[in-house]
Amino acid sequence: QDNSFEQFIINYCNEKLQQIFIELTLKEEQEEYIREGIEWTHIEYFNNAIICDLIENNQTGILAMLDEECLRPGTVTDDTFLEKLNQVCATHQHFESRLSKCSRFLNDTSLPHSCFRIQHYAGKVMYQVEGFVDKNNDLLYRDLSQAMWKANHSLIKALFPEGNPAKINLKRPPTAGSQFKASVATLMKNLQTKNPNYIRCIKPNDKKAAHIFNEALVCHQIRYLGLLENVRVRRAGYAFRQPYEPCLERYKMLCKQTWPHWRGPARAGVEVLFNELGIPEEEFSFGRSKIFIRNPRTLFKLEDLRKQRLEDLATLIEKIYRGWKCRTHFLLMKKCQIVIASWYRRYA
């Protein structure tokens, strides 16, 4: 219920993670259909870039305003910080304050005068400005860092690298908000170079008890985790997609025309394979470089057929091996019998 600077930067990080989730899933998913030439009706979704810009913009962002208040000379208080926000962010559609120039919040009794409210992706959150300025200032004195760095204990020395005399910087240390913003930017840059997999965790109840599901709590999490938009895109689109070459390599054993070797383009081989299996045309689409399968049950059917075919092939290999082994043994016994018989007749 009481949110201060700590919760503000945590929610900022959540917004950035949600932004990269949108870019790598919803946006990328729909753009891939367009790139592959798949007929597609665009599905609208909320892009929270406008909220991230409200917080991190270098000129008019909340963190920039907070840093400016912490670094400017004169009397600086949490109230002056809120006053600056009311001037700079007054017209922003996701910022609310009783003292803002936007008159629509003047009569909002649920919003105290010493607070501001941000309409995050996951809902509205009210922040108390008390302590924002003090918590944003890095008040670790330089001589204290140097003293800690001179400690004999290796862990304490490692915790205060800024105390190293060789790295002394006479400039004012960066604020907590700017340090956190830089860390988040590094995290986002790192994530964008990876191929992340998302696991959305749903908390069924607040008691941490088994077999209890609070419907209101679960629905709230599903709505604000963005799962509904993701499900809409997935249902309207295709559950599975794969380049033609690995698809043909995996399932070519299901068709006599493509097994064991297909001579020709991979796409043509996949077309022959799907026609031979009798898969309905509405269940798949051919892109420029990938095959798109709409429903998971079609993929499950392919996997079941492949599993059965592998068992049949294993049985065939086993049969041929047993036949070869028995025939080899028979021929060896026959050869031995002839040798023994010839020596016996010579002796007789």
From TrEMBL:
It holds the Pfam family Myosin_head. It comes from the Eukaryota. GO terms for cellular component: brush border; cytoplasm; microvillus; myosin complex; plasma membrane. InterPro entries: Kinesin_motor_dom_sf, Myosin_head_motor_dom-like, P-loop_NTPase. Residues 184-206 are annotated as: Actin-binding. Belongs to the TRAFAC class myosin-kinesin ATPase superfamily. Myosin family. This is MYO1B protein. It comes from Leptocoma aspasia.
